[in-house]
């Protein structure tokens, strides 16, 4: 019986406790993308991506040139030379595929490493603002995660966070 009474009391009191709490909300992506640290990290990633793209383009051109040479001379090649050239082309193609896969992995890793300190800084600011303003919680409104917020119980702190990050 006491468990039922406790449950009923909790169900009655819970909405009143939640109603007494205030919370904040903001767009994480909007704030993140406005940070100078994020912009710098993004520029560094774009520079690295361009370097990898240039190297992939160079490798593709090398493969295409060798393939054209192979096509032009294949009729005149001795069978052993033909097989050797085919094996070289196959090996070059496999190396290019491996390089492309490794490039994608390295770029993802570089992005994670570049953005990690930026996200940590943003999260620390959000926590500090939450403590200072006495919020029960702060919602991230990105991706339609929170389609409705009662403005009498909540505060949009996007601008506040942006200002704190300056």
Topology summary:
Blueprint: H1 2-20, E1 23-26, H2 28-34, H3 36-73, H4 79-133, E2 137-140, E3 154-156, H5 158-165
Parallel strand pairs: 1-2, 1-3
**Could you name the CATH topology?**
Protein Binding, DinI Protein, Chain A
Specify the biggest β-sheet: 3 strands, parallel
Q: Uncertain spans, ≥5 residues at pLDDT below 50?
A: none
* CATH class placement: Alpha Beta
N-to-C series of helices and strands: HEHHHEEH
Counting DSSP E segments of at least 2 residues, the number of strands comes to 3
Radius of gyration: 29 Å
How many H/I helices? 5
Give the CA-CA distance, first to last residue: 56 Å
Give the integer mean of the pLDDT values: 88
The CATH architecture: 2-Layer Sandwich
Number of domains: 1
Q: What is the oligomer described by this structure?
A: single chain
| Overall morphology | rod-shaped
Widest sheet, order of strands:
2-1-3
The CATH homologous superfamily is termed Skp domain
Quote the beta fraction. 5-15%
Helix-residue proportion = over 70%
């Amino acid at each position: 019986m006491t468990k039922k009474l406790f449950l009923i009391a909790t169900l009655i009191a819970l909405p009143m406790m939640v109603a007494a709490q205030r919370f904040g909300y903001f767009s994480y992506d909007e704030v993140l993308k406005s940070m100078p640290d994020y912009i710098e990290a993004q520029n560094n990633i774009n520079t690295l991506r361009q370097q990898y793209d240039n190297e992939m383009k160079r490798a593709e051109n090398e493969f295409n040139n060798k393939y054209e040479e192979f096509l032009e001379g294949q009729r005149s090649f001795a069978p052993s030379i033909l097989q050797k050239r085919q094996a070289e082309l196959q090996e070059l193609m496999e190396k290019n595929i491996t390089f492309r896969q490794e490039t994608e992995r390295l770029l993802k890793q570089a992005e994670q490493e570049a953005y990690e300190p930026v996200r940590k800084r943003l999260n620390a600011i959000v926590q500090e603002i939450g403590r200072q303003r006495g919020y029960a919680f702060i919602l991230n409104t990105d991706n339609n995660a929170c389609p409705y917020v009662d403005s009498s119980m909540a505060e949009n702190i996007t601008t506040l966070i942006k200002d704190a990050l300056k």
